[in-house]
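Here is my example:
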Amino acid sequence: MRDYIIRTARPDDIDAARAVMLDTVYRDFGTGYVPHWHGDIIDPAAAYLAPERHTLLVAVEQGSGDVVATAALDARGPAHPPNPREVAERFPSGTTAQVRRVYVRPEHRRRGLARRLVAELVAFAEADGGYRAVYLHTDPSVPGAEDFWRSLGKVVWDEREDAGGGQGIVHFEIPMGR
C-alpha cells in the first residue's frame, strides 16, 4: 500500500505540481492549456503561495517523493461572465474560498487523496476566518467529477438546466464546519 503526505506546496514543489496540472488539462479535459482558464497553472507560486489567503496543497508519495496530486484555494469568487450572474453574486470575491486544481494522477486515484486534499482546503478556509463560503465548479463531462463533488457538497446551480445549457458547468458549495 502506498502512503502519502499532504502538505502545503513549497517552492521546490512548483514544477512537479505544474506538471500534474498540465497533464490533467491535456489528458482528462482534452482542452490543453488555455491561458484565459489556466493562467494560474503556469505560475502557481504567484497564484497560490504568495497571496496570504491562498494556498496550494500537494500530495507527495512517501518513498519516491513524487508530487502525485494538487489542490488549490483562492479568494476569487466566480466571475460573471462566463458564470451565471446569480452564482457570481452569491459567491463574491474576498469572502468566498474557491477550490481549484484538485487533480490526482491516474495511477494514484481511488485512494482518498482528493477527499483528503479538499478536507485540508476547507480547514484552511475555516482557519482564515474571513471566508463565508467554499465554492467550486466542475465540468460534469469529466468522468467521476460530478459524483465526487456531489459527495462533498451541494449543487447550487446546474447550467445544464438553463435554457441553451449554458456552459454545461455544475456549481457547488462545500459546507464549512462552523
Q: What stands out?
A: The mean pLDDT is 95. The longest strand covers residues 96-104. The radius of gyration is 16 Å. Residues 113-128 form the longest helix (16 residues).
